[in-house]
Amino acid sequence: MDLRQIPLFKNLSEKDLEILKENIKKEEKIYEKGSYIFNQGDIKKDLYFLEEGSILVAKFDSNGKRSIIQTFNQKAIFGEVYAYLEEAYDFSAYVQKKSKLIVIKDFRKLINESMPKSFLINYINLISKKCLILSQKNQISTQFTLRQKISNFLLIEEENGKVNLDQTREELADFLSTTRPSLSRELSNMADENIIKIKGKEIVILDAKLLKEML
């Protein structure tokens, strides 16, 4: 595949791309449903790009309780921070359905002053955007009520007045630290109050002002 399909390598000139190609070790890998790309505690030096498939990123405590961090159902980069720092993962990446990934081996070796400036800027932008998203999502866990958590989640994920859910109700409930019945009940209440409208995996925000007032 063309490296420029991966956001980290977008907008690179042919010259810059050639420099990177000389230094990059990459491979295409197929992961079957039910397998793990890495487990909590693993130290990996690779960056991953999901080309197609579905990956669930989750953390497990000592009692086996699962906390969902993120679900990837479309093209996405992950693992770039842990690969650079060469730190052990504090979460696992589980394959929800057969997935194709591009694996950039020994990623840290690419982050040095001899690499093209445009590539390094892309990396900084990627990290900065992910930090912002992480900060926004951390705000959800600080909310006191389930309705506040739902409201914050919807406002963060909203695009053009709609939220398209990548995850199942159970996964979203796990992410919001609640149960599936409680989540479904609260969503139904919010729909009855004409705050939102639910259409399958799409949630339409009818009253964004009220959602903001709940926070």
What does this structure look like?
The protein is of the alpha+beta class and 215 residues long. The chain has 7 helices and 9 strands. Strands 1, 2, 3, 4, 5 and 6 form a 6-stranded antiparallel β-sheet that branches. A 3-stranded antiparallel β-sheet has the order 7-9-8. A hairpin with a 2-residue loop joins strand 8 and strand 9. The protein is globular. The N and C termini lie far apart (44 Å). The model has no long low-confidence stretch (mean pLDDT 92).
Furnish the topology, listing elements before pairings:
Layout: H1 14-23, E1 25-31, E2 36-38, E3 47-60, E4 66-72, E5 76-78, H2 80-85, E6 92-105, H3 117-141, H4 146-157, E7 162-164, H5 169-175, H6 180-192, E8 196-199, E9 202-205, H7 208-214
Antiparallel strand pairs: 1-6, 2-6, 3-4, 3-5, 3-6, 7-9, 8-9
Helix pairs in contact: 3-4, 4-7, 5-6
Brief write-up:
With 215 residues, the chain is α+β, with helices and mostly antiparallel strands. Helices cover 37% and strands 27% of the residues. It contains seven helices and nine strands; from the N terminus they run αβββββαβααβααββα.
Core attributes:
three-stranded antiparallel sheet; alpha+beta; six-stranded antiparallel sheet; 215 residues; single chain
